[in-house]
Specification:
The protein is mainly alpha-helical and 324 residues long. The chain has 15 helices and no strands. The protein has a single domain, classed as ABC transporter involved in vitamin B12 uptake, BtuC. Helices cover 72% and strands 0% of the residues. Helix 3 runs antiparallel to helix 11.
C-alpha cells in the first residue's frame, strides 16, 4: 500500500476538541444569563454574517464593502415571504438565502473581474445604490418606517416565539452551527484550496488551468447566500426590517468582527462577534456619543500587538507559555 499524504491546507480545518468550547459557552449563556438573550441572539446573527464575510474576503480575497447588500436582501425577502403568507421560518430563511445567492451570482461575473481598490469602490457604489433604491421604494421596503406586520409560525410547529427569547436564541444558534459546519467543509475541500490559491496568486492559478472567475463567482454566491440567511434570521427574530440592514454600518460591523477575530480562520468570526458586540453594547451604554473611541482603541491594540486577530494573540500567548 502506498501512503497518500493529505495536504496541510485540506487538514488545517479538521475538528479539534478545544473548538467545542465556543458551543458549550453558547449553551452556558442561555443557562447563566437568560436576561441577555436578546443581545446574545444578535451576536449569533452577526457571527453568521461574519462567517459569510470571512469566506469572501479571508479565503477568496474578494475585497468588498458591499456585503450588507446580501444581508439586506435576505432580510427583506424573509419579511415579504412571511407577509405573503408563508410563515414557516426554516424554509423562509433558506429561500431568502437562495435569493441573495442568486443576486450575487448575477452580479459576480461583472464585479469580480475587478481586483483591489477598483473592486472595493465598485462594491461600495453598488451598496449605496441599493440602499438609496430601497429608501425610495417605500411600497416595497417601507422606506424609513421599515417593514412590519409579519410574524412567524412556531418553530418546527412546536416552539413558539416567546417574549423571553429562548426560541429565537436557539434558532439563531442552530443556523450558525449548521452553516459553520457546511462552510468549513467548503474551505477544507479541493475547491477551498483552489480558492485560497487564487487569493494568493491568481495569475499562477490561471496558468495551471484553473478558472479563477468561476471559482470566485461560486464563492461569492455561497458567501452571499450565508449572508442572506443571516439577514433572514434577523428579520424573523425581530419581526421588523429597516433600512439599516443595507447600510454601510452593517458591512463595517461584519468587517470589524472578522479583523478582530482573525481573517481566514472562520473561528475568528465566532470569537470576534461576541467581543465586538458586547464591547459595542456596553460602550454605547457608557457613552452614546463617544463609544467609537472604545472600538477604535480595541482595534488598534489587536492589530498592533496581535498578528491574526484575537486568535493570533491567543496562539502566540499559548506558545510562549508552553516554552516557559
Amino acid at each position: 500500500m502506498i501512503a497518500v499524504e493529505r495536504s496541510p491546507l485540506l487538514s488545517r480545518h479538521r475538528f479539534l476538541w478545544p473548538e467545542t468550547l465556543f458551543w458549550l459557552a453558547a449553551v452556558a449563556v442561555y443557562l447563566l444569563f437568560p436576561q441577555y438573550l436578546a443581545i446574545a441572539t444578535s451576536v449569533m446573527i452577526m457571527a453568521l454574517f461574519a462567517v459569510s464575510y470571512d469566506l469572501a474576503i479571508g479565503f477568496g480575497g474578494i475585497l468588498t464593502l458591499g456585503h450588507a447588500v446580501f444581508f439586506g436582501i435576505g432580510a427583506y425577502s424573509a419579511a415579504w415571504i412571511a407577509l405573503l403568507g408563508w410563515t414557516e421560518p426554516l424554509t423562509g430563511a433558506l429561500a431568502s438565502g437562495m435569493i441573495a445567492a442568486a443576486f450575487a451570482g448575477a452580479l459576480g461575473p461583472f464585479l469580480l473581474r475587478l481586483t483591489g481598490l477598483p473592486l472595493i469602490m465598485v462594491t461600495l457604489g453598488v451598496s449605496v445604490i441599493v440602499h438609496e433604491a430601497a429608501n425610495k421604494a417605500g411600497w416595497l421596503t417601507g422606506g424609513d418606517d421599515g417593514l412590519t406586520g409579519f410574524s412567524m409560525s412556531p418553530l418546527l410547529g412546536w416552539f413558539r416565539w416567546s417574549v423571553f427569547g429562548d426560541t429565537k436564541y436557539f434558532y439563531a444558534l442552530a443556523w450558525l452551527l449548521v452553516i459553520f459546519y457546511l462552510v468549513r467543509r467548503v474551505v477544507a475541500s479541493p475547491f477551498g484550496v483552489a480558492l485560497q490559491g487564487i487569493r494568493e496568486n491568481a495569475l499562477r492559478m490561471r496558468l495551471v488551468g484553473t478558472s479563477t472567475l468561476r471559482h470566485l463567482v461560486v464563492a461569492y454566491s455561497i458567501s452571499a447566500g450565508v449572508a442572506g440567511v443571516a439577514g433572514a434570521v434577523s428579520a424573523q427574530t425581530n419581526t421588523f426590517v429597516g433600512l439599516g440592514v443595507l447600510s454601510l454600518d452593517t458591512t463595517i460591523d461584519g468587517l470589524v468582527i472578522v479583523v478582530l477575530g482573525g481573517i481566514g480562520t472562520l473561528y475568528g468570526s465566532l470569537v470576534g462577534a461576541p467581543v465586538y458586540m458586547l464591547v459595542k453594547h456596553f460602550a454605547q451604554q457608557w457613552n452614546p456619543f463617544y463609544w467609537m473611541f472604545v472600538i477604535g482603541t480595541l482595534l488598534i491594540v489587536v492589530v498592533r500587538f496581535g498578528r491574526g486577530g484575537l486568535l493570533g494573540m491567543a496562539d502566540v500567548a499559548l506558545k510562549r507559555l508552553l516554552r516557559r
